[in-house]
Design a protein that fits this description.
197 residues, mainly alpha, 7 helices, 78% helix
Amino acid sequence: MLVMRKFLLLPLLNSNCDGLELQMGDIDFILSILVVILLTASGNIINDYFDVKVDKINKPDRVIIGKQVKRRVAMMLHQVLNFGSIAISGYLCFKYGIWWPIAIPILVATLLWWYSPVFKKMNFLGNLVVAVCVSIIPIWAGAFEITETATHYADSISNISALKTKMWFWTGMYSAFAFLLTLIKRSTKRFGRFERR
């Protein structure tokens, strides 16, 4: 997300006119990163929760849930992390006056909840879910940044609409690249496992 901000969005903004700054505050940007961290942690917890039996066979030394952490504590922590990510997203949506980004953490939390018990068992669909979750990160990085910056410079930049479109286009390109790269990597990794068998 930091790379997106400093090496994609800021140069695109300055391609129009030097000396312009992105308008999302650093604290708010850190909060948006925290949303991704909370969702990732929550996804790892719920994945471990559903995979306890398999992990006891395949990775017995790495099993945490059921040994070091009680199952109900893990489930409660999963819910708290999801709630935290949605609450922070709600705050950011309220502050920047756009509400569509609230759908992103809700979608990711839902996909990760169903990943282990359902999607993971369907090879391609499981890989697709993970690729979608990864590809959302560049979009999330731009969600508030692009909107706030375009609003701030609306009166001073004549072609702000074209600049906003350009920023979203390149954000979408990075998102598509992340999606394809993740899908290919996961698909070939799983295919490689079948080949070895």
